[in-house]
Specification:
Length: about 425
């Protein structure tokens, strides 16, 4: 027995290792037991079609002669399920910042390890189909997830995940968000199946808030005589603010540093060149009130279309954004103005043959102007009113008691009383 590889285990027992397990000869009970070892590679490799035998020789002697017998054990194989596992290389990271301008990590890859100790493991296409995977051809299968799309490459035994930063669910992630996306990969050996869950982790990023504005109409300066021709004194911009992964609020610190004044009740004001803007945070509107008494506003004419810009800032507590709200003011024509101040009264000459002199002349100083242009003497109106062009910028008109002369160069008018001798 010893020469045949048996080992004396004591107490009348002898053992010998076989291919698929171990045999033990119990001399006291005249039995040979065989213990199958299912951990052995050879045993694991057996399948339902496998029926190998394991033979052990038992020898005896009478002290002079010997004899032996072969004890043959048959092992019927069984099917072992295939195995599959996956290892993901890294987390994905959402793009963030302004319009996803801060790049993240858009892809990750899981390496798939599949096997079968007693057969061949292949991807279970029927299970893939029933689980919502789509055959993309060339051994590739795709499945849309919540935050992106997974692609199973059966040829390379990899599963890639492409994060889609345009999806609402992805955009909604913030720095505190770390959701997982799970995809099941099934395999089969033709009889039994197995699967593994491939878990990708997405680390969210902060997206900047957004803000925009829409102004309803232009403002129009009042014109005419003393602003008697009304214009359009107010305009309103509707503010649209938002944050795909948080809450956008007005940035009060930025408003203050930009010269806005807290007017209380959620309102902020800022004086401009032509009027005053008021930001109503409660209604998300910005109103602009044109001040027709301002010199800059009065100076506008019909050819004037200046703009007035106010910056509205927002924040999500981390990132900021702002928009320029632009109001357009259409100028109007203000009538020119003219006034006169006479220096003194005239006095008729009296006495004998007007020998007692009076005050023969007086002068009126003419003040003319135009807040949004240039006032000049209206020669057509002078002519139609009976004035005569005397040359050199002078105009004369006979009155009841004398003659007036308008000196356009000096902006004076001198009436003279006629003297009769």
């Amino acid at each position: 027995m010893t020469s045949d590889g048996w080992t004396d285990a004591g107490s009348g027992n002898w053992t010998k290792a076989g291919t698929y397990g171990t045999a033990t000869l119990h001399t006291g009970s005249n039995t040979l037991t065989y213990a199958l070892d299912d951990t052995l590679t050879a045993t694991q490799a057996l399948n339902t079609s496998s029926h190998p035998t394991e033979t052990f020789t038992v020898p005896v002697t009478d002290g002079t002669a010997t004899a032996s017998t072969n004890v043959v054990f048959t092992i019927d194989g069984s099917n072992d399920n295939p195995t599959v596992s996956a290892l993901v290389d890294h987390n994905l990271v959402e793009a963030g910042g302004v319009a996803n301008g801060t790049l993240g990590t858009a892809t990750a890859t899981a390496t798939i390890t599949k096997g079968d100790v007693d057969g061949t493991a292949s991807y279970d296409t029927a299970a893939l189909t029933s689980d919502g995977w789509t055959d993309a051809g060339s051994g590739n299968w795709t499945k849309a997830g919540t935050y992106g799309t997974a692609t199973l490459h059966t040829g390379s035994n990899t599963l890639t995940y492409a994060l889609d930063d345009t999806l609402t669910a992805t955009q909604a992630l913030n720095t505190s968000s770390h959701p997982t996306e799970t995809f099941t990969v099934p395999v089969t050996d033709g009889t039994a199946t197995a699967s593994t869950n491939v878990v990708f982790t997405i680390d969210g990023s902060n997206d900047n808030p957004t803000v925009s504005a829409l102004v309803d109409h232009n403002l129009v300066e009042a014109g005419g005589v003393a602003n008697g021709t009304l214009g359009t004194a107010t305009a309103t911009a509707t503010i649209t603010k938002g944050d795909v992964d948080g809450t956008a609020s007005y940035d009060t610190a930025a408003l203050t540093s930009d010269g806005w004044t807290d007017a209380g009740s959620g309102n902020w004001t800022k004086a401009g060149t032509y009027g005053t803007a008021t930001l109503h945070t409660g209604s998300n509107t910005l109103t602009y009130a044109l001040d027709d008494t301002l010199t800059a506003t009065q100076a506008l004419n019909t050819s004037s279309h200046p703009t007035e810009t106010f910056t509205v800032p927002v924040t999500d507590g981390t990132a900021t954004a702002s928009t320029n709200v632009v109001f357009t003011i259409d100028g109007s024509n203000d009538n020119p103005t003219v006034s006169a101040l006479v220096d003194h009264n005239l006095v008729e000459a009296g006495g004998v043959a007007n020998g007692t002199l009076g005050t023969a002349t007086a002068t009126a100083t003419i003040t003319k102007g135009d807040v949004d242009g240039t006032a000049s003497y209206d020669t057509a109106a002078l002519t139609s009113d009976g004035w005569t062009d005397a040359g050199s910028g002078n105009w004369t008109k006979a009155g009841t008691y004398g003659t007036a002369t308008l000196h356009t160069g000096s902006n004076t008018r001198s009436p003279m009383r006629s003297t009769i001798r």
